[in-house]
Amino acid sequence: MSPQGESGGIEAAAIALGRPATHGGAPRPAAAGAQARKPWAVALSAVAPGLGSMAIGRIARGAWILGAWAIALATAVLSRDDVAAAWGSGRPDARIALVTLALTLAGVWAWGIWDAAVAATRPRKRTGLSQWRIAARIFSRNRLAMVGLAVMVLLYWGALLAPFLAPYDPNAQGNIVLERYLSPSADHLLGTDKFGRDIWSRVLYGARISLTIGFLAVAISITLGTIVGAVAGYFRGRVDTLIARFIDMLLSIPRLILILVVVAIFQPSIWIVIVVLGLTGWEGSARIVRGQFLQLREQEFVQASRALGYSDGRIILRHILPNTLAPIIVIATLNIGNTILLEAALSFLGLGVQPPTPSWGSMVADGREAMITAWWISTFPGLAIVATVVSFNLLGDGLRDALDPRLRT
Questions:
Q1: What number is the average pLDDT over the span 148-167?
Q2: CA-CA distances (angstroms) from residue 322 to 169, 293, 314, 333?
Q3: Which distant-in-sequence residues (6+ apart) come within 8 Å of 125 by Cβ?
Q4: Using one digit for the tens of pLDDT, what is the confidence trace for 301-356?
Q5: Closest CA to 62 of 42, 76, 82, 91
Q6: How many other C-beta atoms can be found within 10 angstroms of the C-beta atom of residue 249?
Q7: Helix, strand or coil for residue 310?
Q8: pLDDT tens digits for 350-368?
Q9: 200 and 278 in one domain?
Q10: Could you report the per-residue pLDDT of 66-124, keeping only the tens digit for each?
Q11: DSSP state of 194
């Protein structure tokens, strides 16, 4: 055997065994992109997560980790009295906030150590990547999408930690004579309303209502739309025709009018709003899933599944549905922002969540009588709605660009 052939055989055997190839008895250097593990960087991240990553050149990743750690630690320190009394208070929301804060601190700390100890020393893999890994890399390069993701995470995190972040009870009325219509100050960061209630506290607790309604309503609509679209697209024929005509009929009715009629019939509550928004917003996702199924059911892998005798349910759930997840994720993300905006409109009209439960839409409505003298009552909840909707739209656009192969550059 020639020396070249012997060397190639050694390299192939070493790759198969997962060991470094040798040539002439000496190990070959590590692949490009791999770094030696630095114990001091791990120790630095154990003290302050993110600093170790920044010290070895991972500036952006380290900055994200350090920023998350600083925010979580500052929240724990500034709210230490509420944190200490949270578990013994017996309030479910306070206990959820305590668990969320503890998991955040532990997760960020572990992330910082892992990034300095493992991720930084692992060679960057450029071949054999899955489609989801490629999409994640493309998404991480989209700055606007990352901003939308960061804002969305902060919104949900702040909603869960509302008992620690809110300085006052959102429904507690102060001295109406002395504390109504107070402008933003150190005591009340965003001012007070006509009943002397703190706007900052109500915005935080209102985030829990708006974000919960948006998430659960979209979960209902996406689930229903996926089921209906999958059945119509896979079975085709009369089933597809009947479902398609039913969807066309529902789309011909203005959604807002249909929601107003249903909500007016029943007593408005958070659960009625969630169910109504979920059951009236599934038509668009059903059409998208139907189109995907019509296209995928003719592919070779589906024909092979039928030839092997697989049942229709298995073909739908195991073979076709996973290939439609990308558009489903994108439309779900975009629909959350639209649903939050629609819920705010219902609350503004008095048909959403009822007082005194804080909701961004109802808070905007409360301040319309004093837009000139007390502009902060409507302005800050309105800005919260705008920031939330924009962040979800940016996130949805970024996911669409990352998950659609035709839009990848």
A1: 91
A2: 45, 11, 12, 17
A3: none
A4: 888 988 888 888 888 888 888 888 888 888 898 899 889 988 888 888 888 888 88
A5: 42
A6: 10
A7: coil
A8: 888 888 888 898 899 888 8
A9: yes
A10: 999 999 999 999 999 889 988 888 889 899 999 999 999 999 999 988 888 876 566 66
A11: T
- If you ran DSSP here, which 8-state letter would residue 367 be given? T
Listed in sequence order, the residues at least 6 apart from 40 whose beta carbon sits closer than 8 Å to its beta carbon are 52, 55
Partners of 192 in the β-ladder: 198
Which CATH number belongs to the domain containing residue 260 in this structure? Answer: 1.10.3720.10
The whole-angstrom separation of Cα 286 and Cα 223 is 9
Q: Please name the residue that has the structure tokens 């309105």.
A: 382
Identify the sign of the CA torsion 335, 336, 338, 339: positive
Backbone conformation region of residue 326, classed left if phi is above 0, alpha if psi is from -120 to 50, else beta: alpha
37 residue type, one letter = R
For 33-48, what is each residue's pLDDT tens digit? Answer: 445 557 888 888 888 8
Q: Which string of DSSP letters, residue by residue, matches 213-244? A: HHHHHHHHHHHHHHHHHHHHHHH-HHHHHHHH
194-to-198, 227, 331, 351 alpha-carbon distances in Å: 10, 47, 39, 21
Distances (CA, A) of 104 to 85, 164, 285, 287: 19, 14, 33, 38
Taking a C-beta distance cutoff of 8 angstroms, is the pair 171, 199 a contact? no
175 phi-psi bin (left φ>0, alpha ψ -120 to 50, beta other):
beta
Instruction: Answer yes or no: are the C-beta atoms of 365 and 348 closer than 8 Å.
Output: yes
Distance between CA atoms of residues 275 and 261, nearest Å: 14
Residue 104 structure tokens: 């955040």
Residues 84 and 2 in one domain: no
Of 164, 176, 175, give the one whose Cα is nearest residue 200: 164
Tell me: do 185 and 120 sit in the same domain. no
Q: Please state, rounded to an integer, the average pLDDT across all residues of the chain.
A: 83
Q: Residue 26's beta-bridge partner residues?
A: 23
- Predicted pLDDT of residue 37: 58
Look at residues 393, 257, 270, 266 and name the one whose alpha carbon lies nearest to residue 338.
393
Domain shared by 197 and 290, yes or no: yes
Domain of 383, in residue numbers: 176-407
Domains held by the chain: number: 3
